[in-house]
UniProtKB/TrEMBL annotation:
Belongs to the LysR transcriptional regulatory family. GO terms for cellular component: protein-DNA complex. This is Transcriptional regulator. PANTHER family: SMALL NEUTRAL PROTEASE REGULATORY PROTEIN (PTHR30346:SF30), TRANSCRIPTIONAL DUAL REGULATOR HCAR-RELATED (PTHR30346). GO terms for molecular function: DNA binding; DNA-binding transcription factor activity. Pfam families: HTH_1, LysR_substrate. It comes from Mangrovibacter phragmitis. InterPro entries: LysR_HTH_N, LysR_subst-bd, WH-like_DNA-bd_sf, WH_DNA-bd_sf. Keywords: DNA-binding, Transcription, Transcription regulation. Residues 1-58 form the HTH lysR-type domain. Transmembrane segments: none annotated.
Length: 293
């Protein structure tokens, strides 16, 4: 059964008149009457009673009308959904972030702006370490990911750097240098370094390790945390000092003080990462927001 038969039938049922229905549909009356007759033959029973000044639905026609309206509504919704997905207005978007990204305001401003501009898109957020994010992005489990550079595996993807973020030193308030507003990394060489695992962010780890080694910090006497964020918990107990992205100063527990560093090369770049030759319009619409950054 063709959908146009249903549209013709619904139009006649609403207008209760063939000529008026034909005018509303933009066709002539004789072809409309023929199409309705074919529909009744296909259904196997009359759907209208022909009256002197119009038509009315038979009992079968009334039942058929309810279902026809539902079918047409579902058909229109399906078309609109498909067209919306094709334009990137509907669908879903999976976004990956690292634990340290969770404190960077620009990332969530972008996500909020995207949701405002694309209310028909469902956004899923996944938090994982850098290596896991790159694997999930490569395997299609994520659509985009916010990452911290340097990151060697990110070279396989398209990148847009959003901001260069300096790293800061986190100390316990009882540390002798806790009153200093800024520090040279070498001043901390007698304090144990609390370092995140290399697999969490390999490129960032190598940069931190190299800077600390050049500053004379004993890299054989480091303590290991599971993430950037957990290193702050260890600092709060007086275990040592940690180096974290500046945006993480949003975490302000009583047992931590933050200090700018005079080491210019100790920074990390926040970047958006997506697959090359990406065809998803939801991804393209998100990326398009970055043109003004």
């Amino acid at each position: 059964m063709e959908l146009r038969y249903l549209r013709y039938f619904v139009a006649v049922a609403r207008e209760q008149h063939f000529t008026k229905a034909a005018k509303a549909l933009g066709i002539s009356q004789p072809p409309l009457s023929q199409q309705i007759k074919r529909l009744e033959q296909e259904v196997g029973t009359p759907l209208f009673r022909r009256l002197t000044r119009g038509v009315e639905l038979t009992e079968a026609g009334e039942a058929f009308y309810e279902d026809a309206c539902k079918i047409l509504a579902m058909s229109d919704a399906a078309l609109e959904k498909a067209r919306g997905i094709a334009r990137g207005l509907n669908g879903s978007l999976s976004i990956g972030i690292t634990s340290s990204d969770a404190f960077h305001p620009q990332i969530f401003r972008l996500i909020h702006l995207y949701l405002q501009q694309n209310p028909g898109v469902t956004v899923h957020q996944v938090e994982a370490n850098m290596s896991s994010l790159m694997t999930m992005l490569a395997e299609g489990e994520l659509d985009i990911a916010f990452v911290r550079l340097p990151c060697d595996s990110s070279k396989d993807f398209e990148l847009k750097i959003l901001e260069r973020e300096p790293m800061v030193a986190a100390l316990h308030p009882t540390h002798p240098l806790a009153k200093c507003e800024s520090l040279a990394l070498g001043q901390l060489k007698d304090t144990p370094l609390i370092l995140f695992p290399q697999e969490v962010a390999p490129g960032c780890y190598d940069r931190v390790y190299g800077c600390c080694e050049r500053a004379g910090i004993d890299m054989q006497n480091t303590l290991q945390s599971s993430q950037f964020s957990s290193s702050l918990g260890m600092v709060a107990t007086g275990c040592g000092f940690a180096l974290v992205p500046k945006s993480m100063t949003a975490i302000t527990p009583p047992g931590i003080t933050y200090h700018a560093l005079t080491t210019p090369e100790l920074y990390t770049d926040i970047a958006l990462c997506w697959r090359r030759f990406e065809r998803s319009h939801t991804v393209k619409r998100f990326v398009s927001m970055l043109k003004d950054i």
